Amino acid sequence: MYMKKGSKHTAEALAKMQNRTGTWKWTDEQKKSASERRKGTPWTPARIARGNPPWSPDRRASGGAGMLGKKHSEETKAKMRTAHANVSDETKAKMSAAKKGKPLSEAHKKALSLAHLGKKRGPYNK
Question: Which tens digit of pLDDT belongs to each residue from 38-52?
Fold first, then answer.
């Protein structure tokens, strides 16, 4: 039912809106059902407009070459440098907090270990 312009929500409706516990999540059964329904459906212009159309045969053959072999101009490099140099301490703290506690795979730990082999660490490194 649509509300008329200028009307207010009922107390019951407001209570429902306030008591929501977060975003709705798909169950595994719903995901499987949606996947089965989509399989085999053709890529119509409407479906392509909704997002992520399939790769064309030419693009598939290129393997997503994209920027391969292209170089940024000096002007573009300078712009990127200045954009990255002006990061506030608050933003740095947020970026740091986002990575803290993130589990690393054993392969990643091994790669980090090998990358740091032979490097001096501590105050005497300066």
Answer: 888 787 888 778 777
